[in-house]
Structure formats: C-alpha cells, structure tokens
C-alpha cells in the first residue's frame, strides 16, 4: 500500500531564476517567453512497498526548471539510514491530466485569429492521452461552457467547430470559469490554456473576478498557460495567471501558433511526467528508517515506517542475506508475520494456530553448530558434522560466549516456514533429497550444508539431521513470548526442540513439529543453531545478497 501520498517537500535549494533556454528555442522569434523566479519543489506522490523488499518512490517536479529533461539513474543518490543504496532504477510515467481550454471568441477574433486558435486547440487535443479529460469554455461578453470535462474527442472537435466570433471581452469572468471547472477535476495534473486577443473590455466581469481567478489558480494548484494575441492584450494579468505554474506567451496576431503549440505540448509532457524510483530495501527491515534522496543537487529526507503487514508477505519475495558473526555464518530473517502452529498435523501441541509478528528482523544460524566450532571431536566424527549430545545449557552457553543466543521457538519456526506458511522449509511438497532422516541418513548425522532443502532465508538442515534446541520452554499454544516461556534462568522446565533428526521418519520433519526434553539431557540426536538480534551497526553489512 502507499505509505506516503501527496506530500509536498521543499528541497534545500529554494530559488531558481532566469529564462528557460530549451523552451525559448522551441518558441521561435515571434514568441516572447516570460518567467519569474521558480520555487524549487519536488512533489512526493507516494512511497509504495507492496512488493517489499522492492520499494518505489513516485515523484514529480513542481516547476519546469527540473522537469524539462528526463531524470536518469545517474542523477539520483539514495541512502537508507545513511548507507548508500546501489542499483537504483528509475522509469517515467505520465500522470492522468485534465485540460480546460478557455478561448476568446469576441468580435475582434473573427476570421483568421479564431481559426488559428481552433486549429491549435484541435492539434493539442489530438496529442493528448486517451483518458485525458478536456473541457472547453468560450467567452465574449459572457463565458459559456460548451463542453464539460470529457474524454470524448469527437465531442471536443464538434464544440470547437461551433465557435463563432462576436461581442465584447469578459476576460476576468472567463478566467474564473476556467479555474472553477479545472479545480473540479480529480486527476493529479490540471491544466488551463487561456487564449485572448484583448483585455477586460466593457467592464462586463464581476468586480471580484480579477482577483478570484488568481486565488483559484494558486489555491487549487492549477497549471496555466496563457496566450496573448497582438498588442492590445492585458499582458500583466495573463502573466499573473501563469505565474510560477505554466507560462505566458505573447504572439503576433497573424501567427499560426505552431511554435506556441509545440512549446505548450513539451511543457505539458514535462510537467505531467512522474518518475518511479525503485530500490531494494533489504536494509529497511528495521521498522523505522530514514530515506535520504538527492536529485539534481536537491536533498530530501523522508521518514519511512515499516509495519509488520507491510513487509515480506511471501517467501519467494525475499532474497537471502548472509553475514558472519564471530565465526558463525547467519541468515537474515526479515520483519513480517506468520501463522504459528498447524490445525492439520493432528498433534494437539501444535494447536491453536496464532499469528506471530516480528517488528524487527533477526539473524538465524545458516547451519547447525559444528564439531569444530564447538571445539570437540563430536558424537559423529567430522569437523563439519553438527555438534550432537549437547544439553540445552551447553548450547545456550556456547551461543552466549559468541554474543549470540538460542532462537526462540517462534523465531525458529518463522525462519523455517516463513510468511507463506510452508509445511517444509523448501515448500509444501515432501522431497526425499531435501531433508536428513531415517530413510537416507544411514543412522548418523550429515555434514552441515549437504542437503538441498534450504529454507526461504537460506538456512540449511531445518528438516532433519539433528533436533535443535530453542530458547523456549515447552508450554501450550497459543504461543505468547510474554508469558514466561522465554525465561533463561529456569534450568528445570522442559525446553522445545525443533526440526527432527536423522532418526525420524520423513513425515516427522515438518516445520511445525514440536519436541520437548529436560534441559539437562544430552541425546545423540540433539544439536542446535544460534540466533542474534539485529543491531543498527549491521547496516554496514549490506548489500550482501544472493538470489
């Protein structure tokens, strides 16, 4: 879901002055472009993490100064909590838009001037996107809406063709009418094109309309292009209407408006272009993050909050991340939620199922602790076989000595089955080559990492090989981490082991299976792996990712 929408953020560099050279080239000698100081604003439309760990930021530029050329990845620098994010991608999309054409049809527009305007507006409409809305207002002594906001191009062309010249010029009322119609549109980008060859003639407009139109344009964030034909126009007012949003064009009365049309079309495309910046937010597994975005010399700082339901929701969306802590290789388990337990297994101690959420990521041993790591010859001789015949206290003390700990029962199951709720670490279908159990073990444990059945976070042998001690006391479900079952002082209450062993049958090495033993028992099928809390300094380890 979008986490941030329609938030306007001022960048550090606030003012940009001068002429826009690109647009001047497009307009030609008969068009004089006028522009004032631009307030440099980048609009953040949304931050979307529906496909986490991919996060997308949609933004647009408020002014022509930065939107005149396409944004490229080389112009973007993005940090999460102060760490530079590599491989940032960007693509452009056109925002939905509406266009209100306000056309002077007073008597002085008769003949060629009105025909040129009709031709220009017809070409402008033809170049729009199929879903763009168009409305047409014409005005002489009074404004008239001859086409309400519509996507019907034939209706627009017909309305243009019916325009005839006559009457005086109610310029201010026409400006108000255009702003009112445009402000009623619900699309993100709302444009007005107002064309006139005169000024307020005959004092026909409401006395308040002159200022009211300016207020509507500014308060409704409308983008206005005004075109003044000939020397008798109210250039000051037309310039004010276009101030800081679009542009005012002064054009000779006999011109065919080709260069003006080209300029407006280019500016419209630039101003309605949105940029979608995508990046891998594996680092943002911590709940609160800060995104620093640098674009073309401007810097934005965006708060970014991950809620459990907004993080990894599917096992296949996660790319495993590994790191070494004091000689123990570990896999990162991202924030998220999962259904703990099973209503299908038939084992009462796996019921009832409850939803467990991790607001912070954690680390889980990629392999069971081996003989060489533990420092003994081991129950089954081989440096790389898992340490067996170890008590709960011995396992806990070993992990603690390396500034690690045993995983809780919930952490172990989440690391094994993930948010997708897999029955086995590799999926929902049993596979005789993925686990280490009685049918394929020859009665002994296997070298760690030798089975093919990795879990969704990349941990091995979570189905068979050795039962693994967890931190948790053996208590009834639903699981509750605050009910005392994670007490590390108690050395009497039975503790939970998970995963099954080489001595179990294939239907016993599923992810929700629970086993319990007195913590002082050192059985030949008992081993362990360590876990670790995620620390802020772990950010420097990224992006060590693999697919």
Tell me about this structure.
With 547 residues, this protein is an alpha+beta fold. It has three domains: 2-19 and 35-94 and 273-309, Immunoglobulin-like; 97-267, Rossmann fold, CATH 3.40.50; 313-539, paralog of FGE (formylglycine-generating enzyme), CATH 3.90.1580. 19% of the residues lie in helices and 30% in strands. It contains eleven helices and 26 strands. It has helices spanning 21-27, 64-67, 112-126, 153-161, 171-183, 209-219, 235-242, 258-272, 371-374, 392-401, 409-417; strands at residues 2-16, 31-34, 38-51, 54-61, 76-80, 83-84, 89-94, 97-104, 133-139, 143-150, 189-196, 223-229, 247-251, 273-280, 288-295, 298-305, 322-325, 328-333, 336-340, 354-358, 362-365, 467-473, 495-498, 514-517, 526-527, 531-533. It has a seven-stranded mixed β-sheet, with helices on both faces. A hairpin with a 2-residue loop joins strand 17 (322-325) and strand 18 (328-333). Helix 3 (112-126) packs antiparallel against helix 4. The longest helix has 15 residues, at 112-126. It is rod-shaped.
Brief characterization of the structure:
This protein has 547 residues and is of the alpha+beta class.
């Amino acid at each position: 879901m979008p986490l941030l929408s329609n938030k306007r953020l001022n960048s550090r560099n606030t003012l940009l002055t001068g002429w826009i050279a690109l647009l001047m080239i497009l307009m030609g000698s008969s068009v004089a472009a006028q522009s004032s100081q631009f307030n440099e604003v980048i609009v953040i439309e949304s931050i979307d993490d529906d496909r986490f760990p991919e996060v997308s930021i949609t933004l647009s530029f408020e002014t022509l100064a930065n939107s005149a050329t396409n944004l490229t990845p080389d112009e973007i620098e993005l940090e999460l909590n102060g760490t530079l994010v590599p491989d940032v991608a960007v693509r452009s999309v056109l925002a939905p838009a509406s266009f209100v054409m306000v056309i002077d049809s007073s008597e002085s527009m008769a003949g060629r001037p009105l025909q040129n305007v009709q031709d220009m507006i017809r070409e402008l409409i033809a170049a729009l996107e199929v879903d763009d809305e168009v409305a047409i207002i014409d005005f002489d002594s009074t404004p008239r809406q001859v086409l309400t906001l519509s996507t019907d191009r034939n209706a627009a062309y017909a309305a243009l063709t019916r325009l005839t010249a006559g009457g005086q010029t109610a310029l201010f009322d026409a400006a108000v009418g255009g702003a009112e119609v445009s402000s009623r549109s619900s699309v993100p980008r709302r444009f007005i094109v107002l064309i006139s060859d005169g000024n307020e003639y005959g004092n026909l407009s409401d006395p308040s309309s002159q200022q009211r139109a300016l207020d509507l344009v500014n308060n409704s964030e409308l983008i206005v292009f005004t075109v003044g034909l000939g020397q008798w126009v109210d250039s000051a007012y037309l310039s004010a209407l276009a101030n800081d949003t679009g542009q005012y064009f002064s054009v000779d009365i006999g011109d065919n408006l080709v260069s003006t049309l080209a300029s407006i079309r280019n500016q419209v495309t630039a101003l309605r272009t949105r940029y979608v910046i995508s990046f891998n937010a594996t680092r943002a597994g911590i709940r609160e993050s800060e995104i620093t975005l640098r674009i073309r010399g401007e810097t934005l700082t965006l708060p970014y909050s991950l809620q459990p339901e907004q993080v990894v929701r599917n096992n296949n969306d996660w790319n495993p991340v590994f790191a070494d802590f004091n000689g123990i290789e570990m896999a990162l388990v991202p924030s998220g939620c999962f259904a703990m337990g099973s209503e299908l297994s038939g084992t009462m101690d796996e019921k009832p199922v409850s939803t467990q959420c991790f607001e912070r990521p954690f680390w889980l041993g990629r392999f069971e602790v081996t003989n060489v790591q533990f420092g003994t010859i081991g129950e089954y001789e081989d440096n790389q076989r898992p340490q067996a015949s170890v008590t709960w206290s011995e396992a806990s003390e070993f992990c603690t000595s390396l500034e690690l700990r045993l995983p809780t029962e919930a952490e172990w199951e989440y690391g094994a089955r993930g948010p997708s709720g897999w029955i086995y670490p590799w999926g929902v279908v049993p596979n005789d080559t993925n686990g280490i159990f009685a049918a394929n073990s020859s009665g002994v444990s296997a070298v760690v990492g030798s089975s093919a059945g990795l879990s969704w976070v990349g941990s091995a042998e979570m189905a068979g090989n050795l039962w693994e001690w967890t931190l948790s006391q053996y208590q009834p479900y639903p699981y509750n981490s605050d009910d005392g079952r994670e007490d590390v002082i108690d050395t009497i209450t039975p503790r939970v082991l998970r995963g099954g062993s080489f001595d179990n049958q294939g239907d016993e090495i599923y992810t929700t299976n629970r086993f319990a033993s007195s913590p002082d028992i050192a059985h030949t099928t008992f081993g362990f792996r360590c876990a670790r809390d995620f620390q802020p300094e772990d950010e420097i380890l990224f992006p060590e990712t693999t697919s």
